[in-house]
Specification:
Elements: H1 3-15, E1 20-23, H2 43-52, E2 57-61, E3 68-73, H3 75-84, E4 94-96, E5 101-106, E6 115-119, E7 122-125, E8 130-133, E9 145-146, H4 158-166, E10 179-180, H5 184-197, H6 202-212, E11 216-217, H7 222-233, H8 243-247, H9 252-271
Parallel strand pairs: 10-11
Antiparallel strand pairs: 1-2, 2-8, 3-5, 3-7, 4-5, 4-9, 6-7
């Protein structure tokens, strides 16, 4: 892309209400004195910056400043972590970076801090943070590029939000009594991810999802639930369960396996 596109893009983002500021060409270093704190959506200010620095990359202030938070996904390991946290269950605004993906979510009312590696391959850019946006040039020479411009940033799925808010020690949020349409895949994928990380097999995950699917308004079709279970079960568990506890009558896995057997028996009885 030619130099004028950077100026036009910066003006376009500012007109959307996003606060931007200039960064060093092919770099992430701010050109203004106060960096991200100088970010503005004022048309005249933005125009003046790119007149002064026509080749400048475009920095976007994240968090409450522009109404978006960004999960920086580092290649395959980050994609897997994002999947398990429910971050890929619903379409949301995303962009290609020099070595991965930026996934945009609507900024929550609760303040979020910037985090590095809050999960494997995942960084968070939130309040007082920033990211470069298209058509900026990555230090590698690759251009930032929108993958689905026009798709609005969605609300962060509950488990992704909890992990981003509290880091690796984040507890999983409780399932709501009723799960509205638009959040069903996110919640069920989040539950499936929690179970898989603790070593649950696909059958156990499916049994749990079929039960909790009753909370969804309306419930997902059975094949959709099965797809979630199958997709999440492809990932390696974070903790391999000890076999004695796994087989004990009171264990979580034993209860789910008993549930699977009961569901199979009931299904067979209905068809018999």
């Amino acid at each position: 892309m030619s130099t004028p596109n950077l100026s036009k893009a910066a003006a376009f983002y500012a007109a959307k209400g996003w606060r931007v500021f200039p960064c060093t060409p092919r770099d992430k270093t701010p050109l203004t004195t106060n960096g991200v704190k100088d970010a503005s959506s004022d048309a005249a200010t933005v125009e003046a910056w790119w007149v002064q620095w026509p080749d400048a990359n475009i920095g976007l202030a994240t968090g409450q400043a522009s109404g978006v938070v960004v999960v920086d996904v580092d290649e395959q390991i980050g994609e897997a972590a994002l999947q398990l946290l429910g971050g890929k269950a619903e379409p949301t605004l995303s962009a290609k970076t020099g070595k991965g993906t930026h996934v945009f979510f609507a900024a929550p009312e609760t303040a979020l801090r910037n985090r590095v590696r809050f999960k494997p391959g995942l960084d968070l850019r939130a309040d007082d943070g920033y990211v470069l946006v298209a058509p900026s040039v990555h230090p590698s020479g690759a251009r930032y590029m929108w993958l689905n411009w026009g798709t609005p940033p969605i609300t962060m799925p509950p488990e992704l939000f909890a992990a981003a808010q509290a880091g690796n020690g984040a507890p999983a949020p409780e399932l709501p009594e009723r799960i509205p349409e638009g959040q069903r895949n996110g919640w069920l994928t989040s539950l499936a991810g929690t179970m898989r990380r603790r070593g649950a097999c696909e059958e156990a995950i499916l049994a749990a999802l079929l039960v909790e699917n009753r909370r969804c308004m309306p419930p997902l079709e059975g094949d959709e639930v099965q797809t979630i279970a199958r997709s999440v079960a492809r990932y390696a568990p974070a903790v391999r369960p000890a076999h004695p506890a796994d087989k004990s009558p009171g264990s979580l896995m034993a209860r789910y396996r008993a549930g699977v057997a009961r569901l199979a028996t009931e299904k067979g009885g209905r068809h018999g």
